[in-house]
Structures are given as C-alpha cells and as structure tokens.
Amino acid sequence: MIRYDLLPTLNASLNALSAILLVIGLVCIKTHRIRAHTICMSAAFVTSLLFLTSYVLYHVHVGSQPFPGQGWVRPCYFTLLISHTVLAIVIVPLALRTLYLAIRGRFAQHEAIARWTLPLWLYVSVTGVIIYWILYRVRWET
To answer: 142 in a domain, yes or no?
Structure first.
C-alpha cells in the first residue's frame, strides 16, 4: 500500500537531489571530468523522472494542497508557484533535447542548449523544494 502522505516529502527530496546532481555535473564539466559529468546529469535526469512519476501519482490520488497563507506572502507564493510551474513545463522538452544532443555526440549544439537548460532546471528543482517547504512545513496562522 502506498503512503500518499509521504509523497510530498519524497518529491522534495528528489528535487533537492536533482539540484545537487545538476550542480555537481556543472562543476564536473567545468573541470573537464566528462565521464563524471555524464553520470551526474544522467542521474539528475532519472531523479527528475522519478519525481515526475511520484508527483503525478500524488496529485491523482490526493489532489492539490491549498495555500493557507494570507497577506503579503500570498502574492509572493503564487508568483513563485506560477514561475515554477511554467518553467517546469518548459524544462521537459529542453532537457530531452539537451540529453538527445549529448547522446548523439552533437556537443556544440548540446553545450549551446545546456546553457539555458541547466539554470532553468536548477530553478525548477530548487523552487520545488521551496514550494514544498511553504506548503507542508511552515505553520501558517489561521
């Protein structure tokens, strides 16, 4: 039996792990450790796929968690959520294209698109953790 109540924490952990792997992968390529870069970026991709699977499973079975905050924090939260959601949609084809170009050995094109993919993917991963924290860990006064 799946404990759906544990999935948000799993999702945040997968997002955090993905962000860490992305940063390590960036450091590896900057220091010309190509094999380590490949491993880190592949692991980040798999981690993100696991996140997406878990995220969809949670929302199909549980639904959405409403934001309980009031006042000035509310528009801040929704600005963060909207930017996260839009870029999460954008990152899917970008990440797939970036991975495809690397697999095909088209490294000049891979590098050109990765300059956009990496910071957007990192933003989505980090803001995913922040959104989790805001929704599930902050105690809002009601």
So the answer is: no
Residue 141 in any domain: the answer is no
The verdict on residue 98 lying in a domain is yes
**Residue 69 pLDDT:** 92
Q: Which of 38-52, 58-72, 99-113 has the lowest mean pLDDT?
A: 58-72
Number of domains the chain contains? 1
Asked if residue 7 lies in contact with residue 59, where contact means CB atoms within 8 angstroms, the answer is no
Under 8 Å CB-to-CB from 17, ≥6 apart: which residues? 47
- Which domain range does residue 78 map to? 4-136
Mean pLDDT, the chain, rounded, equals: 96
Helices assigned H by DSSP within 1-142: 7-30, 34-61, 73-103, 107-136
Cα–Cα dist 13/41, whole Å: 17
pLDDT at 32 over 80: yes
Instruction: Give the count of beta carbons closer than 10 Å to the beta carbon of residue 124.
Output: 25
Q: Output the six-digit token pair for 129.
A: 């953790």
